[in-house]
Specification:
By secondary structure, the protein is mostly helical. The protein contains one helix and no strands.
Length: about 180
């Protein structure tokens, strides 16, 4: 077979050789296609197996997550119930403390009222005693003034008596002489 160049036309021999090599190449390509088909079938089977395995694993994982989630939700609900119970108890305690505070305030108000009554009575008694003391002081002032007047009167009388006695004695001496 002669070398074919682009400038020369192909001969029958060239065409037969080309057909033979092409048939051989075609058979090789068909063989390669069959191998690729087999490989694709194997990959497809493997992928189906992997996909089925993944599905099973995913379903198991989802089921596990659901179980965990349900358990977590149950735990949260349980804790919420506990918190609600604690809140109710806390509300009761707060109410008891409030009632106790109100009662203590009431007792304190009563004690304050008693203390104020005692202070009012003490003030009244103190003012009454003060007024009595002032009244007594005024009486003593009046008595002192009256006694002073009496003493002045007595002192004047004594002075008059002395002058009278002196006069009488002088008269008596003058009469006796």
């Amino acid at each position: 077979m002669a070398a074919n160049t682009d400038n020369q036309p192909a001969t029958k021999g060239d065409l037969k050789e080309l057909a033979r090599t092409t048939k051989g190449d075609l058979a090789a390509v068909k063989g390669d296609i069959a191998v690729v088909k087999n490989d694709l079938a194997a990959v497809k089977t493997e992928l189906k197996g992997d996909t089925a395995g993944l599905r099973t694993e995913l379903k198991a994982a989802i089921a596990g997550l659901r179980t965990e989630l349900k358990a977590d939700i149950a735990d949260v609900r349980s804790e919420l119930a506990t918190v609600k119970t604690d809140l109710k108890e806390l509300d009761k305690k707060i109410e008891r403390v409030y009632i106790s505070q109100v009662q203590a305030d009431s007792r304190l108000d009563q004690k304050l009222d008693k203390v104020m009554e005692k202070l009012d009575k003490f003030y009244s008694d103190l003012m009454s005693a003060f007024e009595k003391t002032i009244f007594k002081g005024e009486k003593y002032d009046q008595k002192a003034s009256t006694h002073a007047d009496m003493l002045i009167g007595h002192t004047d009388r004594l002075a008059n008596h002395e002058s009278r006695i002196t006069l009488l004695e002088t008269k008596k001496q003058s009469l006796s002489s």
